[in-house]
Design brief:
Pfam families: ABC_tran (PF00005), Cupin_7 (PF12973). GO terms for molecular function: ATP binding; ATP hydrolysis activity. InterPro entries: ABC_transporter-like_ATP-bd, ABCF, ChrR-like_cupin_dom, P-loop_NTPase, RmlC-like_jellyroll, RmlC_Cupin_sf. Keywords: Repeat. The protein has 386 residues and is mainly beta. The chain has 2 domains: 260 residues, Jelly Rolls (Sandwich), CATH 2.60.120; 60 residues, no CATH class. The chain is 9% helix and 41% strand. The protein has 4 helices and 24 strands. It is elongated.
Length: 386
C-alpha cells in the first residue's frame, strides 16, 4: 500500500568506535523475577542496571513476587520493573514513601510520569490524591512531600521526547467519579488522557469477568494493573503488575472476579526518548572496543529500519462519487499516518468535500474500503471566505 508517510528525523552520527559494540544484555524474561535480589546485589547492579530494558522483547512482571528494596533516601522503598542506567536511569518502578516524608527540589532531566496508587502526594503544583495521573515534562522542577498516610506510586522516568513539547505539569483524575469516562464501542469504559505523534495514554475499566479482544500494533503497548486482575496469552496479570507487548498481535483478555482498572500506553516503543538514547550512547562509548577501519575484511552490520506503525486512515482500492452512477474517483489506495499534514487541492466541483466525507466515515465508498484507527475520531468543519 502506498503511504503518505512522515519523514524520519536524522539521528546524530555515532562515534566510529561504537559500531562494533553489541546491544546490551537484558533481563526481560519473567522467569528471572525470582533472581532479581541476587542481581541487584551484584557489582554490575551497583554501576549499571539493565532490567527488562530491551523494548523489542515482550514480558510480564507481577510485582507481588518482588521484594521491596530500601533506597539511599530514607523512608523510600521501591520495586524495580524496568531499568536502564545507574542511580539516574530510564526506569519504570513502584515506589513506596513513608508518611510525612519530604524531599529537596529536583529537576526532571528526562521527564517524569506517575500514577498515585495509594495515599496523597503534594508538590509545588498541586495536591495529587490517590487515582491521579501526572506528567511532569522534561526540565520541570518540584519539591515533593508525602501526606500523613504515606504514598505509593508507579513512576516512569526519562521516557518523554524532546521532539514533542508538553506543559511543565499536567494531571488527571482517573477515579470512577470523573465524568470524562466514556463507554467505548467494545463495551469497555475508557478515559483518554494524553496523545502525541509518539505515544498515547489511556485508562480502561473492565467489568468483572468481562472478556474482549485487543489489537496491539507494531509500535507496542504497555499495561499496568492499577486495581483488579486479568489474564491473557502472556499470563496472569495481578494487581500492580506490568507487561510489555512488543510486537503486533491479537490478545484475548478476561478480567478477574473484581474487574480491573488498567493504565495503557501505546505507540511508544519505537519513539525517541530524551535520556535513554543519551545514556545508551555514553554507555557504548565507555565500553567500545577499538576498530581498525583500514582492515579490508571489516564488515559492519546495521539493523534493518523499523517498520512504520499502521496508518490512522487506510483507503483500500476505494471508489466514490456523488451517487453510485456518478463516480468521481476510483482505484484509491493509500494510507495517512497520524502526524501527517495533507492538503486536498482542486477547483470547484472536483469532489474535495465529498472526499472528506469519505475519510470521516459519513460517506461509504461504492467499492473498496476506508478504515479508521479505533483510537481516532474524525470531524468535519467548513470555513467560508468572502
Amino acid at each position: 500500500m502506498r503511504r503518505l508517510a512522515r519523514l524520519a528525523r536524522p539521528m546524530a552520527a555515532l562515534p566510529a568506535a561504537c559500531c562494533a559494540v553489541p546491544l546490551p544484555r537484558t533481563f526481560c524474561e519473567a522467569k528471572k523475577e525470582q533472581s532479581l535480589d541476587q542481581f541487584l546485589k551484584s557489582d554490575k547492579a551497583q554501576k549499571w542496571i539493565e532490567l527488562n530494558s530491551d523494548k523489542s522483547q515482550s514480558c510480564l512482571v507481577n510485582t507481588d513476587t518482588i521484594d521491596w528494596i530500601q533506597t539511599a533516601a530514607g523512608g523510600v522503598r521501591r520495586k524495580m520493573i524496568e531499568r536502564l542506567g545507574g542511580e539516574v536511569a530510564r526506569a519504570t518502578t513502584v515506589v513506596s514513601f513513608e508518611p510525612n516524608a519530604s524531599f529537596p527540589s529536583h529537576r526532571h532531566e528526562g521527564g517524569e510520569e506517575f500514577i498515585v496508587l495509594e495515599g496523597d502526594w503534594f508538590d509545588d503544583w498541586a495536591t495529587q490524591p490517590s487515582y491521579t495521573y501526572v506528567r511532569n515534562y522534561i526540565g520541570s522542577r518540584h519539591t515533593p512531600r508525602i501526606g500523613p498516610k504515606g504514598c505509593t506510586i508507579l513512576v516512569k522516568l526519562c521516557q518523554m521526547s524532546t521532539e514533542q513539547t508538553e506543559p511543565d505539569h499536567s494531571q488527571w483524575d482517573i477515579s470512577s467519579s470523573n465524568p470524562s469516562w466514556r463507554r467505548s464501542p467494545n463495551g469497555r469504559r475508557e478515559l483518554r488522557v494524553y496523545e502525541s505523534p509518539f505515544e498515547e495514554v489511556h485508562f480502561e475499566r473492565w467489568e468483572p469477568h468481562q472478556t474482549g479482544q485487543v489489537e496491539v500494533d507494531g509500535a507496542g503497548e504497555e499495561v499496568f494493573v492499577v486495581e483488579g486482575s486479568f489474564v491473557d496469552e502472556l499470563g496472569e496479570h495481578r494487581r500492580w503488575s506490568w507487561c510489555r507487548t512488543a510486537e503486533a498481535r491479537r490478545l484475548t483478555r478476561r478480567a478477574g472476579p473484581e474487574g480491573c482498572l488498567l493504565y495503557i500506553k501505546s505507540r511508544h516503543l519505537k519513539s525517541p526518548e530524551a535520556q535513554s538514547r543519551m545514556k545508551m550512547l555514553t554507555k557504548l562509548q565507555e565500553e567500545a572496543v577499538a576498530v581498525d577501519f583500514d582492515d579490508p575484511y571489516l564488515q559492519l552490520d546495521f539493523p534493518a529500519a523499523s517498520a512504520l506503525p499502521p496508518p490512522c486512515i487506510s483507503v483500500i482500492e476505494a471508489a466514490f462519487g456523488y451517487t453510485s452512477d456518478r463516480i468521481l474517483y476510483e482505484g484509491l489506495d493509500f494510507g495517512v499516518d497520524c502526524d501527517s499534514r495533507v492538503a486536498i487541492v482542486g477547483p470547484n466541483g472536483a469532489g474535495k468535500s465529498t472526499f472528506l466525507k469519505l475519510l470521516d466515515g459519513s460517506l461509504e465508498p461504492t467499492k473498496g474500503f476506508v478504515r479508521l484507527s479505533s483510537y481516532m475520531d474524525c470531524t468535519n468543519a467548513a470555513m467560508q471566505h468572502t
